[in-house]
Amino acid sequence: MTGDFETRREALTAAWGQPRPVSDPAAACWLLGGAAAGLNGTDVLAQRYPSREAAMAFHRLGRDEFGHVSLGIKADPAGGVVGVMDVRARVAAMRAAMSNPKEGTR
Question: What is the pLDDT of residues 18-76, one digit of tens each?
């Protein structure tokens, strides 16, 4: 993580509060519909935000720092806004680095 990431995250958290994890990420995918509906809960980061603007800002941060792909942001009938990001590429890179730690030191 970069220092810029930490600064941006702190500013977003100060403005909108900490995003809250969605207890059932697969259900969040179904809420979005489309391609997201077929993903497993382990493929995504699903969080609840106070507003669409907050979700968009945190999704930009995740994209810029980790390459996460925003699958969508939608009002939740239970309240707030749910945003889902595809984290498969980042998880795959982390697994590859763990399975071959010497590769990361070159």
Answer: 999 999 898 888 888 876 777 888 889 999 999 999 999 999 999 999 999 999 999 98
Are residues 74 and 31 in contact, defined by beta-carbon separation less than 8 angstroms? yes
- Residue 98, domain extent: 3-105
Q: How far apart are CA 51 and CA 74, in angstroms?
A: 10
70-105 residue pLDDT tens = 999 999 888 889 999 999 988 888 888 898 867 555
* Residue in 47, 39, 42 with CA at minimum distance from that of residue 73: 47
**Whole-angstrom Cα distance, residue 8 to residue 63?**
13
Report how many domains make up the chain: 1
Q: Where would I find the beta strands (DSSP E) of the chain? A: 20-21, 44-49, 69-75, 81-86
Dig out the tokens for 71 from the structure: 């699958």
Q: In whole angstroms, give the CA distance from residue 45 to residue 29.
A: 10
